[in-house]
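Troubleshooting log. The previous run stalled partway through. Resubmitting the same two chains, unchanged.
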Amino acid sequence: MKIAFRIGSAAVLAVLAVWLWTVLCPSPEKVIRQRFADLARTASVSADAGDLARLSAARSLAGFFATNVEMNLDLPRVGRLSSMDREEITQMYLAASSRGGGMQVKFPDLNVTVAPDSLSAVVDLTVTATIAGEADAIVQEMKVTLHKIDGQWLITRVETVRTLS
Amino acid sequence: MTEDQTRQSTAGSTPPRWARWVRIAVIGRNPKVTLVRVAILIVTCFVVFRFVLLPIRVEGISMLPTYKDRSVNVVNRLAYLWHDPQRGDVVSIRLAGPHLMYMKRIIALPGETIAFEHGRVLINGEVLDEPYEKTPCDWNCPPVKLGPDEFFVVGDNRTMPQQFHKFGETPRYRIVGKVLL
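Second attempt completed without errors. Output:
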């Protein structure tokens, strides 16, 4: 009985230690997933948000990107884009979010592949943007490359993937 | 004396008939067997709806009139386990994952050449009979030769302008399964 109790206690402690380890030192994949959850939350804007809130969101959003982002985008309402800096990202977001109603951004699917050196990662994702007043949501598959710069995972490259070519 | 008391107390604690029937209806005559049945049901549902039948909700009008906006359907993930997708099949095509998919109809198979000419679909130069197409359209698309592992998919609603409709070639690995209903 005493041995069983000790084994049980050791097992509970081991599970607790593993859980604590994953909380304190999350894997790069977990960090990246959390980063995209934050990105979606930041990019989403409610219909009644004021200009200041939108500007604040735009500045926060730019923080998810590296100083210069390589782009290979071919978006239905935006057109072709090849590269952008943080200021351009801020301006583009402000233009998109101030068109009228609110905007909800989601990443329903994220496939994260972290490089063996854990300094870069490629994320295949689906992004949906629902704009208030528009019947259909914008749905786009994308490939995003991130690099760990100064301890932060920053987006360095974004490209659209054509699901149906 | 003791036996009488025991009988009386037992008779007194017997639940009313309706309560007994409610109990049987809810948890069955044998709770252990019911528990096992519930466990089996949960595991079966999990396996079926996770790996075999994928419940989906149609959003958008690209498959009208066959599938209405916001209708519910099921995708059979095992449909193409033993054979390749066929022309006319309505399939779901995944983007980055299975949470969001396109629902389209296969109209051309690997190796074929497909073109749209004044709304008519030409497969290897011959007009394709499409009984599911109820309204005429005026789409035009130059001939496209499909690769050995490519299918050409399109929605049934071709009344909408061509540029607003997502259609084209898709590799085999993107086809998740066949729409069941």
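Takeaways: The interface with chain A takes residues 59-60, 93, 95-100, 102, 104, 153, 166-170, 174 of chain B (CB under 8 Å). The two ends of chain B are 70 Å apart (CA to CA).
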